[in-house]
């Protein structure tokens, strides 16, 4: 889950940026000859919505397993289902009311308001039961469907993509690589991989424009993505990632440093909005 | 002001004539050599810039600033070209920081992070210096061992070393010093940001000395044991002394020097319950004045042979001063800072001590013999433990239009 303040900040930033461009035509960012990125944002919209579609389907399977008391199926479905959400986070998290309902961790919200994936995760892995979690499962289905309906309304802008790409990696740095995201199931690397894939999608879409601006930067980002994937692949067997608790301290540090090395050049992605 | 300056110079000359330039406390901070210029600026606001460009790097014979931030880095690339381009970027950034300017271009695209991280905006340059060095691993990782100076070898193991990986080694180091801690940190942070993807942090240490504001008399600084430290440093303002003890002339390193960094933890709780007589016998000096035992003045000549009425050596042979001094023939330039890093989680005691830093033209001929003597017999070893260690070749200075490491890569 995104922290409350951050969610608000993103929305505010988007508004400020838009206002900035409108007010001050001399700003180098929003000059008339700035590239048209509408095909990129359109394509991203299709990608993100298809991920949310899959998220709805897979969440339903997960939640049904919880409702029918099939704890093993529920556990197996938990991490893969979440990956769709984590990939599409830049738009999934736009809704400050739904994101905590679906993805809040213990302590993020008052206990009585705590629902969603992580509440059920604690039931499955700590209490080792689905009993008493049926309502949370149904609530999760309802919330994800509502999310699916709402994402239609998201205005996908270049700002949202550029901020979103780095933000996905920041999520990795601050909660996934520390093992705090999936603290009961320890499936943090699934979320980690999905965040990276989501960031890579944005990069790939913007890459042709980036190459026009700074070919070396594009090549550097490409290489750093490869480094991260190499490390992730070392922790992958079939579709399964190593549990966070089975990683050595050195492996965690290596993953963390690889994200820093990727995110720093990726933070220059905003150059694509500049006039050629 | 002129007269005042001259008076200070003459005092230095008197001191030197007295032979006080001999190596004193190895555990020590800045030298007495800083007396001259520091005295001259006593009471003034600490402002100013130290030029980045020059025959030698800044931050070595520069008057010690109040604060230090040290970072040791590991190379993660083996591409020489990447390192060269980074060193060029570092040159440009360090020159800007030294002038108190922001690095890179002013922010124009709000969708990108600014080039400069901004926490030093509006702050005085605070005499900030950035000193760059390369460690033994640098040459191995870049397949440049042919260029590795023989001087730059890992230190031998000394008695009682308790070195920990988390405080040791490094392929590259950046020593940032400034009269403001935020300015020092800003320098290192921005340089490391430029290195991201090519280098990673290995270890860091923030450290301090008493500030110039707190001691306008500019006396020799005291370490955390309460003793004056650095009385016997060679005069860092003397070109002759620095040419003799610090600057190397050989090959691509000409104009550079070699640096030893040791993270020395001090058992300050143990020290605090040690009787004054024992403390003074440990150092071989009086705590109040810094004078050799049995003497009155800090800068009086050491007489290691002198005995008291009972026939005992006035300065014990196993005292820190006696062992560090040896026969007085070997000197190195110490530029150490104290650190206080919270507590040792195992014992609940302070993790505090000294980030010992010395510069010398030969580690083998200067640091090693002194430290070998100290490690074997120094009474101070009961109260200290060496937790970290690293050696670096500090690159020659950069001339305007040139770049850091140019002689190494050319």
Strand and helix layout:
The complex is a heterodimer of chains A (276) and B (410).
Chain A: H1 4-23, H2 38-67, H3 71-87, H4 89-92, H5 98-103, H6 117-127, H7 134-151, H8 158-176, H9 188-213, H10 215-234, E1 236-237, E2 240-241, H11 249-266
Antiparallel strand pairs in A: 1-2
Helix pairs in contact in A: 2-3, 2-7, 3-6, 3-9, 8-9, 8-11, 9-10, 10-11
Chain B: H1 2-17, H2 35-40, E1 67-75, H3 80-98, E2 129-134, H4 136-141, E3 172-178, H5 181-195, E4 199-208, H6 239-245, E5 257-266, H7 268-272, H8 276-283, H9 320-325, E6 333-334, E7 337-343, E8 350-360, H10 363-377, E9 384-394, H11 406-409
Antiparallel strand pairs in B: 1-3, 1-4, 2-3, 2-9, 5-8, 5-9, 6-8, 7-8
Helix pairs in contact in B: 3-5
Question: Can you give a write-up of this model?
Answer:
Chain A has eleven helices and two strands, in the order H-H-H-H-H-H-H-H-H-H-E-E-H. Chain A has helices spanning 4-23, 38-67, 71-87, 89-92, 98-103, 117-127, 134-151, 158-176, 188-213, 215-234, 249-266; strands spanning 236-237, 240-241. Chain A is globular and about 60 Å long. Chain A starts with a helix and ends in a 10-residue tail after the last helix. The relative contact order of chain A is 0.13. Chain B is an alpha+beta fold. Chain B has one domain (33-41, 49-99, 123-215, 224-404). Chain B has helices at residues 2-17, 35-40, 80-98, 136-141, 181-195, 239-245, 268-272, 276-283, 320-325, 363-377, 406-409, and strands spanning 67-75, 129-134, 172-178, 199-208, 257-266, 333-334, 337-343, 350-360, 384-394. In chain B, a hairpin with a 6-residue loop joins strand 7 (337-343) and strand 8. The chains are: A mainly alpha (276), B alpha+beta (410). Chains A and B meet through helix 8 and helix 11 of A and loops of B.
């Amino acid at each position: 889950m995104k922290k409350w303040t951050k969610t608000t900040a993103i929305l505010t930033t988007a508004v400020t940026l838009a206002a900035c461009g409108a007010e001050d035509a001399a700003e180098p960012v929003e000059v008339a000859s700035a590239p048209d990125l509408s095909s990129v944002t359109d394509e991203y919209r299709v990608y993100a919505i298809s991920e949310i579609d899959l998220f709805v389907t897979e969440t339903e399977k997960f939640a049904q397993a919880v409702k029918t008391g099939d704890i093993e199926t529920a556990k197996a479905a938990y991490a893969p289902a979440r990956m769709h959400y984590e990939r599409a986070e830049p738009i999934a998290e736009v809704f400050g009311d739904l994101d905590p309902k679906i993805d809040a961790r213990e302590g993020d919200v008052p206990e009585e308001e705590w629902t969603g994936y992580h509440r059920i995760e604690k039931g499955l892995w700590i209490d080792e039961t689905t009993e008493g979690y049926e309502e949370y499962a149904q609530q999760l289905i309802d919330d994800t469907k509502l999310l699916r309906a709402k994402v239609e309304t998201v205005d996908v802008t270049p700002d949202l993509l550029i901020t979103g790409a780095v933000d996905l990696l920041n999520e990795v740095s601050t909660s996934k690589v520390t093992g705090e995201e999936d603290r009961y199931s320890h499936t943090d690397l699934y979320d980690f991989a999905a965040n990276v894939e989501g960031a890579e999608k944005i990069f790939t879409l913007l890459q042709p424009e980036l190459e026009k601006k700074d070919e070396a930067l594009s090549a550097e980002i490409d290489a750093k993505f490869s480094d991260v994937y190499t490390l992730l692949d070392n922790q992958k067997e079939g579709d399964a990632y190593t549990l966070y608790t089975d990683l050595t301290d050195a492996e965690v540090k290596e993953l963390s440093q690889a994200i820093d090395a990727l995110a720093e050049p990726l933070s220059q992605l905003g150059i694509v909005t500049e006039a050629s | 002001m002129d007269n005042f300056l001259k008076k200070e110079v003459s005092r230095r000359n008197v001191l030197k004539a007295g032979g006080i330039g001999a190596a004193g406390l190895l555990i020590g901070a800045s030298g007495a050599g800083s007396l001259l210029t520091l005295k001259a600026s006593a009471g003034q606001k600490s402002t100013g810039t130290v030029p980045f460009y020059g025959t030698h790097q800044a931050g070595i014979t520069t008057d010690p600033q109040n604060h230090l931030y040290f970072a040791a880095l590991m190379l993660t690339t083996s591409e020489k070209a990447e390192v060269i381009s980074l060193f060029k970027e570092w040159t440009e950034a360090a020159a800007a920081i030294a002038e108190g300017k922001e690095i890179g271009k002013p922010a124009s695209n709000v969708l990108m992070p600014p080039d400069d991280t901004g926490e030093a905006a509006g702050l005085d340059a605070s005499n900030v210096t950035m000193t760059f060095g390369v460690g033994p691993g640098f040459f191995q990782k870049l397949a440049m061992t042919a260029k590795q100076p023989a001087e730059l070898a890992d230190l031998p193991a000394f008695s009682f070393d308790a070195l920990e990986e988390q405080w040791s080694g490094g392929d590259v180091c950046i020593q940032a010093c400034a009269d403001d801690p935020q300015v020092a940190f800003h320098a290192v942070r921005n340089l490391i940001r430029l290195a991201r993807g090519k280098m990673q942090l290995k270890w860091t240490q923030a450290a301090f000395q008493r500030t110039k504001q707190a001691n306008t008399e500019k006396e020799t600084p005291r370490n955390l044991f309460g003793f004056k430290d650095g009385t016997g440093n060679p005069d860092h303002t003397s070109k002759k002394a620095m040419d003799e003890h610090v600057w190397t002339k050989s090959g691509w390193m000409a104009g550079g020097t070699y640096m030893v960094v040791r993270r020395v933890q001090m058992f300050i709780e143990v020290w605090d319950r040690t009787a004054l007589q024992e403390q003074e016998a440990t150092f071989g000096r009086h705590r109040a004045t810094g004078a050799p035992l049995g003497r009155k003045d800090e800068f009086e000549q050491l007489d290691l042979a002198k005995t008291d009425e009972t026939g005992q050596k006035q300065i014990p042979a196993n005292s820190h001063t006696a062992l560090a001094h040896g026969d007085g023939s070997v000197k190195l330039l110490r530029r150490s800072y104290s650190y206080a890093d919270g507590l040792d989680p195992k014992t609940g005691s302070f993790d505090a001590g000294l980030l010992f830093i010395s510069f010398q033209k030969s580690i083998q001929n200067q640091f090693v013999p002194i430290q070998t003597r100290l490690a074997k017999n120094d009474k101070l070893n009961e109260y200290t433990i060496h937790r970290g260690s690293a050696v670096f070749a500090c690159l020659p200075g950069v001339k305007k239009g040139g770049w850091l490491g140019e002689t190494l890569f050319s």
